[in-house]
Specification:
By secondary structure, this protein is mainly alpha-helical. The protein has a single domain (about 5-215), classed as Serine Threonine Protein Phosphatase 5, Tetratricopeptide repeat (Alpha Horseshoe). Helices cover about 70% and strands about 0% of the residues. The chain contains ten helices and no strands. Helix 7 packs antiparallel against helix 8 (about 135-150). The radius of gyration is 16 Å and the shape is globular. It binds adenosine-5'-diphosphate and magnesium ion (MG).
């Protein structure tokens, strides 16, 4: 079974994930301090604060335009690699849902696939390089598989979120090929990648929002 996700839903989700990111400040900053330069949480937190501040405007747009605006805000408000990668990803996603007022489950899967493809191209990265792609990519693969297996919407969201969380956890033992952790002598082995963890928060909060609000119990 599918669902209908509107811009208003997306803004509701943004407010939920903004809070989740805010509450995990010390943890995420610690992860980036161990493997990078320590700013990932402040970058991503600032980005979600700016999205939440634009909530009124975003919720009154068709979802394709909202995604484009989200991309532009992320590109301009989030510093570091993640700003460019998220910005580009949302803009790519807005293109695959062009002309849509709201989206269904297949559209969301297509949008997430466009995001990961854009991130991989822009960041010249693949799964296994200890980046945020290691959470998003398995989530997209699980989503595609679930849609083709025709299982329930609830079960689909549970599988997508599990793949994202497991994917982030798997970065612990990876050697970084991209990002600042790749400059470290041990390539960040033993630490989770902060970008993968914040990506998993976003996917988890989106799946939970859909389960709790858009799917019949
Ligand atoms: P910066 O590394 O510029 O300080 P952030 O700290 O905001 O930027 O983000 C770091 C995160 O960005 C990393 O944890 C990793 O997940 C992700 N990242 C870095 N480089 C790349 C890349 N080339 N492709 C995909 N993700 C990347
Ligand atoms: Mg950083």
């Amino acid at each position: 079974m599918s669902f209908t996700l509107t811009s208003k839903d997306y803004v509701n989700y943004i407010n939920i994930v903004k809070q989740r990111i805010y509450e995990n400040g010390d943890y995420i900053s610690g992860l980036d301090a161990a493997t990078g330069d320590g700013d990932h949480w402040s970058n991503i937190n600032m980005g979600f604060e700016s999205l939440a501040a634009a909530g009124e405007e975003l919720q009154n747009m068709p979802i394709d335009a909202a995604f484009k605006k989200i991309g532009m805000l992320m590109m301009s408000k989030i510093g570091g690699s993640s700003g460019i990668l998220y910005g580009g990803a949302y803009m790519a996603a807005s293109k695959v849902i062009a002309g849509k007022e709201s989206i269904d489950s297949q559209d969301l899967c297509n949008a997430m696939e466009a995001m990961v493809n854009d991130m991989m191209q822009r960041g010249k990265a693949e799964p296994g390089m200890k980046t945020m792609i290691d959470s998003l990519y398995p989530a997209v693969m699980a989503y595609k598989q679930a849609l083709s297996a025709n299982i329930s919407g609830r079960e689909t969201m549970i599988l997508v979120k599990k793949a994202a969380i497991d994917g982030a956890e798997a970065t612990r033992n990876m050697e970084a090929v991209k990002g600042r952790a790749s400059y470290q002598t041990n390539k960040g082995v033993g630490n989770l990648d902060p970008g993968a963890v914040t990506m998993s928060y976003q996917i988890e909060c989106l799946c939970d929002y859909i389960i709790d609000n858009l799917i019949d119990k």
